[in-house]
Amino acid sequence: MALLNPDPHPVFRSDRAIDTALRQTLVKAAATGVDTVQIIPGEGTSRLKKRVLAVLEPKHLKKLYARVEAVPTNARRILVHLR
Fold it and tell me: What phi-psi label fits residue 33: left (phi over 0), alpha (psi between -120 and 50 degrees) or beta?
């Protein structure tokens, strides 16, 4: 299983920067044949996790992945399984 793991923390203060970083990661992963993108928003107020999940909602991005798995046993991790 190929895995890509972007870190949203360096850009967490800017919603636009989070959007750009995650979109670029998804496009790169789809182009290079990566199976899964693991995003670790961490603990805290869950604001970053909610933002990451919102970025993944548009239809044009949903075409790139099969499903999003917000791991219930590990609230700090989101897995995006690509097609």
Answer: left
CATH domain 3-82 topology: Ribosomal Protein S8; Chain: A, domain 1 (3.30.1370)
Nearest residue to 56 (alpha-carbon basis) of 72, 43, 42, 70: 70
Q: Are 18 and 52 in contact (CB under 8 A)?
A: yes
**DSSP secondary structure, 11-34, as one string:** GTT-HHHHHHHHHHHHHHHHHHT-
**Assessment of whether the complete model's pTM goes beyond 0.90:** no
Stronger pLDDT, 75 or 67, i.e. the higher one: 67
